[in-house]
Write a structure and sequence with these properties.
Blueprint: H1 2-18, E1 26-31, E2 37-40, E3 48-55
Antiparallel strand pairs: 1-2, 1-3
């Protein structure tokens, strides 16, 4: 019974802390092929380099 209480308390802590998590930042990437720019949270692929960032929104602006 005691283990159930601690398990429930641990689950409640994890759920409440995940609600406070911040979203991943956005970065502006530049294509190695043609120089075009894209704003993304993840790398668009192997032929892209990080150009600038981090930014708080998907428009790559402050």
């Amino acid at each position: 019974m005691r283990a159930l209480k601690y398990g429930a308390a641990a689950l409640a802590c994890v759920v409440s802390l995940s609600a406070l998590a911040l979203p991943a930042p956005f970065y502006c990437g530049q294509s190695k092929l043609n120089g075009s720019l894209v704003c993304a949270q993840n790398s668009p692929g192997w032929n892209w380099t990080r150009f600038s960032g981090p930014y708080p929104n998907a428009h790559c602006g402050r």
